[in-house]
Each structure stands twice: as C-alpha cells, then as structure tokens.
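Progress report, Aim 2. The chain analyzed during this reporting quarter is listed below.
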Amino acid sequence: MLKANNLFQRPWLLFAGAITIVYLANCFTPLRLTTDSIRYFELAERLQGIWPANLPVRNDIFPYGYVILLVMLTHLHIPISFAICLINCIYLGGAAYFSARIFAPVVKPLYLLIFIILNWIIIKLAVLPLSEMQFLFFTMGACWYFQKYCLSKKTGPLILSAVFCMMGIFTRTAGVALLAALLISFLLVIRRQIVEWIRGPRIVFIIGLVILVSALTGLFISRAFLDYIAFFTNPFKSDPLSFIVTNIQRHMVDWAEIFINIPFSKTGKYLPEQIARIVYIILGIFFLILLIRLLFNKNTTVSIIAKVYLPIYLLLIFSWPYFEARFWAPILPLVGGIVLQYKTIATPLFKKLFSAYAFYYLLAGLIALGFYTQLSFNKRELSQKQEEGQFRHEYEKHFFGINSPDSLIEQKAMYMLDKYDR
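Predicted structure tokens for the chain:
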C-alpha cells in the first residue's frame, strides 16, 4: 500500500520521466549553430591543426575545457550533434543531482528537477554545442562537495570541490567567481582556526598567507584573466554612467526571462517592445528582491557557499557588457532551490499567487519544450528559426541544396554544417 505522500509524488515522477524522454529524443536534432558554437569548433580544429587555410582565423579567449571535449568527440564515429546533446543531458542530470543534494531535505528533489528542466533556457542549451551545461555541472559539483565538507569537515570533499572548481574555470573564465566564493566561504568556515594560527607560531601563518597570495597573484596577472577583465573595463572607461545604467536595465530583462520563462524576443507578437521591456524589468526587480530576501532569511535553509556565490555571480553578470539569458544558467538550480522555499516568508495570499505562477511556469516550459522539439524534427522550421534565422541561408543550402548569393553565406557556418552535421 503506497503512502499518501508517495501517491502524490508518483504523477510528478511520471511527469519528470516524460520530460526526460523528450530531452533524450532531442539528441537526434541536426547540428544547431550559434555564433559561439562556431568559435568553439574553430578552436577545436585549430588545436588539432586541421583548420582550413582558406577560412579566416579568429583570436579567441575561450578556455579550452569545452574545446577539448569537442576534439574528443570529433574522433568518435557517431554524429557529433547526437553526442553533444547526449553529453549535455548527462551534464544536466549530474547538475540536477548535485542541486538536489544541496537543498535536501528542505526542497523536494522532484520539484527542483522540474523547475530546472522546464526552464526555457535550459531546454535551449541542452541542444546547443556550447559550454554552459559542462560549466553548470562543475559549478553544482563544486558547491555540493564544499557543502559536504562543511558538514563532515573531511578533506576529501574539499579536494573534490577544488577539482570541480578548477574544471569549471577551465571551461568558463566566469568560474573565477566560483573560486572567489569558495575561498571566502572556506575562510569563513575556518575563521576560528585562522585566529588560532595567528596566535600560534607565526611561521605557519606566514607560509599559508604567502601560498595564498602567490596563487591569487598568479591568477590575476595571467593573460587570460587580464583579457577577460578588459571586457569590463574598456566599456566602463569610455562612458561609466551609461555603461552602468544600460547594463542594469538590459540584464534585468534577461534576468526576468528565466522567471517569466519566455524569451523577451518572443513577446513582440503580443506586446509593444517598450511595454514588454518595462514589464520584464519590473518582474526582474521583484524576483531579485525575492531572491535576496530568501537568501538571507533566517528561516530559509541556504548553504554558506550559496550565500557567498550568488551575490558575487549576480554582481559579475550585471557588470558583464553582453546580454543573454544563458549567462544565468549556471546559477539557475541554486536560484530554484531558494525560490522554492518561498513558504518561509509567504502570506496565505502570496502562497495562492505562487501556486498560480507555478502552473504558468510549467505551461510556459512545456510550450518551450514543444517548440524546440519541433525544430529537432523539422528541418524547414529549424532553418528559419534557429538563432532567429541567423543561419537560414546556410541551413537551406545544407539541407535542401538551395543556393544563395555568396555574400549571404557565412563560410565558417557552411563549413561546420557540411563537415559535422551528418
């Protein structure tokens, strides 16, 4: 005889299972190109020394973590798009597992899983040759193992947290935010020991301080880090006030996209752009305030690493001079685990409103899943709608042999499709 709780959970388990099957079905999508995915493939070929001499070379600062994965996949005798999507799903499953462990037993794992896999940006990223899923996996792994260290005080989880963090930095330079959060959290956890070290033999404290300062100095003076920082400093130097105002407004829109669960670009059919932008900004501010309030509420269960990492990452992205909702994907599970604890501050009316919002969120997620699944099995639609039709001419030539003037064909994109979409 099943318990009442199990009877309630079973439909959600079947629901999550059905969504998982659809995710796996999307592994059979043709290769989906984006500007950044072309850059990753180019780096992979240049690393192997096989980049065509007749194509221009772009100097990129992407870390090589995801590039090496592409290099390995190019040597497998299976369609690379299938392999990429399958690995993305594996990464997503691992990240969801780590997230569930981070918030257990306060947040039901099924609810958190559904929040994650029915978010439109996660659905989109699962079928793209981009590093986000890999970075998400390493980020959540680092957070979970650090939390495990806090609970057990054993060095094993701490070492694993450091390994996952380093792999995250090797995947995305934004991983330095995670490194900073881990260092700050670690210092907070061992603050009493630090006081004892200071009071004890000075040589131990001095050696430890020298090692820490040397490691941080090596990171901060590295060419990759300096090039990364230049993305912030160059726009800021030219017009600081405009940079700050523009960044906050535009990032508030892409921040709101993960909660509204509809990309801002899709609202043009229903609302004038300016009105839609105002709505997104207002809702973005609301959810940011809600997150911050829950993050530091004494009745909410949040690990120290999440309390440190989320403000650092929020500050990083709100300062970043490029604007896409996918930049929020690495913290989406942490955000979901905190927002799902809304009952700790909710009034009866707010609980009812949140239930209505949850229904809307699920519905919007299912529509997004249906949209991206349709593109996986409809080449005509994929040609016209992938990246808002940016590569329509290349897809039409590749799929249907429809020739367009050379001036309309992006040669790198054409090369990638002809070589890897098979």
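The chain has a mean pLDDT of 88. Residues 31 and 421 are 5 Å apart (CA to CA). These observations will guide the mutagenesis work planned for the next reporting period.
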